[in-house]
Amino acid sequence: MKAICYRLNSALTGFFLLAFAVVMPALVQAQTANDGQPVKALTTNSSGALLVLRESGLFVLDGKTATEIPLPPSDSVPRPNSLATGADGSLYLSGPGLGIWRYEYASERWQSLSHTLPDLGITAIAAHATQPDTLYAYLGEGGMFRSRDAGAEWMKVDSGPREPVEAFLHSDMPGSMESGWLFAGTTRGVARSMDCFCFWGDAGDLRGTVTVIGYDPSAPENVYAVIEGQLHHSSDGGETWAGIETPQAVTALTFSPTEGLLVGTENGNLLSRHASGGWGPVHE
Amino acid sequence: MPLEDGDLFMNKWLVPLVLLVAPALVMAGGEPSNGDGVPTEMAEGRQIYEQYCASCHGWQGEGAADWNKPDEKGEMPPPPHDETGHTWRHSDAMLFRMIAEGWRHPFNETDQLTMPAFKDNLTDEDIRSVIEYLKTFWAGDQRRYQQSESHSRDRHPS
């Protein structure tokens, strides 16, 4: 009997040691990724991995593995606040005082794209939904700039909406005179313009400071906006809006090809929305 | 070799003569014009504009009042074509397509075209003429922007 107990005890100890050795690195990496601070921005890369911008850095989450991407060099303390993925899968990062950068996955280096911008005060960026070389940058009072050669040359195209832009996106929603639409989160609500920059108008009557905006690339009429942590959804291109309940205040959102709508929260959590409408942790 | 009288005459009168006549020759060799000195294409464009476009977009391209807000039927009113509008933001190819095929604003509350199609009323040449006439409403920097859009459009067809 003693021998059986001894063997059982040894087996259990071995099992727990093995399990601890396997799980611990993932736990450490997950903890590294979640700093408990609000998620600042989210996007996905071409392979579907989630890119998470936190106060503590930029991370790629692939399954349960979190890998940090060092932020680009900066003369001052960098304040990255915006991520975008281009139509070719390129990753773009920007922020006030930081300018705009593209990450070269092959060389694992950042390339500055700010040389022809008037200053580095970029508050928001967007990448064209279908044209890999077309990018947009908003410079506050400087207005809205566009590059059609992947950031080599920037040209001011517009002053932007009447109210300051907090975040914006380009969408290939049908019906534009040109190639798509721009949706901007402003201090008044959501502003919308065709990408000819013909004129900015209110997208519905959602009012408040929109700090986060996103859309479903597979169904572009579905637009999402966040006001004071509350998530709102429009299924008709911004004409009408309805609130969506979330367990925590939302601070970032994106669409994953595999998991659909994903949000980052004020507590640093990443949540995906189930088909039932409920929310669950990402990658768990 | 010393200059002769003939050479002196040539030097004395040739330069002023060239300066006087050359601009006229250049003008004559440029676009054909009507009796008022207005290029023929522009005159045709103006005539077409006044016949087909002005009743909605204004005789001076001023557009409808409150053109950037839906009207009581939920339709977007005709925009200006002058420097206060956004026509100058579109390439020649896009303007041609909109005039020929028309366009419906996706948020119109009716199913009607916002901009009617004119391909059954106007030839391709007519449409090109009216586009050239629209450009006379724009400021210089707007014309340069639109020219850039037209070139860019060739590289980024949507």
TrEMBL record, chain A:
Residues 1-21 form the signal peptide. Keywords: Signal. The keyword Signal applies. InterPro entries: WD40/YVTN_repeat-like_dom_sf. It comes from the Bacteria. This is Photosynthesis system II assembly factor Ycf48/Hcf136-like domain-containing protein. It comes from Marinobacter azerbaijanicus.
